[in-house]
Structure formats: C-alpha cells, structure tokens
Design brief:
11 helices; Jelly Rolls; six-stranded antiparallel beta sheet; three-stranded antiparallel beta sheet; alpha+beta; 2 domains; Arc Repressor Mutant, subunit A
C-alpha cells in the first residue's frame, strides 16, 4: 500500500533532482503517476508532452494540453485524474534548497521562502506570453538533458536552468505573498490524516465517524473538508479507492471476483460489481478480459 506522502527516491542523493515520464500505464522511473493521489516535500513542475490531461490540486482542476506546464508548490495534494489514451507528461521534482544556494542566503530569504511558504498552490504556464514561451522552452531543453546520456557537468546545467526558470516564474506568475493562514494549513493537514486513514484501512468496514475521528473532526466538518478539497464525499472517495485497489488485483492476480471483492473491502460481491461498473464502465470480469487482451497484443 502506498502512503499519501511520497518520499521520492532520487537516483543520486547528492543531487536531489528527478524527472519522471508518465503515461496512463507506467511511470519511468517508477513513481507516483496517473490517478494516484499524493503529496511530497519537493516542488514540482509538470509538463504535458503528448495529448491532454487534467490535474487536480487541492480540489481545483487544471487542464493542460501538450506544450503547457504547471508549477505545484510543495506539500500540496495533487492527482492527475484524466489523461488522453496516448497522453504523456513529465514531472520535474526538486527541493527548494536547490534554489537557495545555501541555508540563510539572500536568495533563500528573498526569492524562495516567501513563495514556497505562501498560500500559493499551483499556476499554469500556458505559453501565451513571451516569458511563458521562454519558460516552456527551458523545460523542453531540460527534458532533453534528462533523456540524453549524462555528460560531464549535466547536473550544473540542470541546476542553473532551474534557478533561471524559478526567477522567471516568480517574476511573472501571480504569487500570493502572504503565508498560508494557520487555519487553512491545519485543514490541509487534517485532510491528509483522513485520506491516510482510508488508505490504511480501506479493507476494513470503515465508518464515517472513524474517518472523521482520524483528524479529530465532527462528521459534518469531515464531509465539508472532503467536498471542498477532494470534490467528493468521504464515502465516495473510499469506494473509489477500493475500486482502484481491486483493479490492481484484477490485473496482478488470478483471484476470483468474489475473493477480490473481499480483499478490496466490499462485504458483498454484488455491491462490488455494481460499484466497479459505475466507476469503470464495465464489470470486473470485462475489465480483466479486455486488459488481458490488450496486454497480449
């Protein structure tokens, strides 16, 4: 089971920087990709390279088309909910300390922390203005460097380009300069606690009271928090997560539909089949058969 909080495994701990390439079916290197809600301590810039996608960030949907990008602040819940069949996107992940040069520097105090600690969550880079086109060109060049053989000095080149890109973004994007209000930050932390509780206990007969209790909230406040940020009720999220885990079992095991229903937290196989069909547009058996046929081509 994957936790909501992603601890990124950098290829080189002495250069904490990684670029993931994601499709609907795989992530390279292996990481948190399509339809996988998570958050991490690093900043992220996602660039759509093929097709279109919808990424939900703190409950707000952003649509990207090939050639567009989005900057995501650290510690923000996000998930790509829609991706074209042939769609592809890359995600650049790096810590804010890369931008600061060293702790306590003028760069950190003036040009990094005021932005990463603000109430800013995300902003689209569409390419409609000269600065945005320049930023997107830099991202494409960085992608080429990650995809190519790593020549001597490539880390310096990526680091320098990232700092230049950051300066370009903070000079032009509509960043709020005020820090995230303590109440809003606490709400986000409580939501993360409730989501983590669901991810840990989805196989159990979870109640709404238990989900709310994970963050010491009332049932009504728990429901409001989910609807505001996740755009669904806690129950709908729980069922959706069970369906997601059952789909993985259908593809990865030879278990019967009845066994998978039980392992995914459904008490009755009929409820599982109905819920799966509502979510996926096909029964579990049809899903397994079609996935097997497409994988054998």
């Amino acid at each position: 089971m994957k936790p909501l909080h992603e601890t990124i495994a950098f290829p080189d701990d002495s250069f904490p920087y990684i670029m993931y390439t994601h499709t609907r079916y795989a992530s390279t290197p292996e990481g948190r990709g399509f339809n996988d809600l998570h958050w991490h301590e690093e900043l992220q810039i996602t660039l759509a390279t093929k097709g279109s996608l919808v990424i939900q960030i703190n409950g707000i949907d952003y649509e990207l088309h090939a050639g567009q990008a989005i900057l995501i602040n650290k510690a923000v819940l996000h998930i790509v909910t829609k991706l074209a069949e042939n769609g592809e996107y890359v995600s650049f992940n790096f810590p804010e300390k890369l931008l600061a040069f060293h702790s306590g520097s003028a760069m950190e105090e003036r040009y990094v922390l005021p932005y990463t600690r603000s109430s800013f969550s995300a902003a689209v880079i569409s390419g409609e203005e000269p600065w945005a086109r320049l930023a997107l060109d830099q991202l494409l060049d960085m992608k080429k460097k990650f995809d190519a053989a790593k020549d001597w000095g490539w880390e310096y080149e990526i680091a320098i380009q990232t700092v230049r890109l950051w300066l370009l973004l903070i000079a032009n994007l509509p960043f709020p300069r005020e820090e995230m209000p303590r109440r809003e930050k606490r709400q986000q932390e409580r939501l993360q606690l409730m989501l983590s509780f669901i991810h840990r206990h989805y196989v159990d007969p979870v109640t709404l009271q238990e989900i709310a209790g994970a963050a010491h909230l009332s049932v009504s406040e728990c429901t409001r928090s989910f609807k505001k940020t996740v755009r669904m009720t806690p129950y709908d999220y729980l069922i959706g997560y069970r369906i997601k885990k059952s789909a993985e079992l259908l593809l990865e095991t030879d278990d019967t539909v009845t066994e998978i229903a039980r392992k995914a937290g459904f008490n009755h196989v009929n409820h599982f089949i109905q819920s799966f069909k509502k979510e996926q547009g096909q029964t579990p058996g049809e899903f397994r058969k079609r996935s097997g046929e497409s994988g054998s081509v």
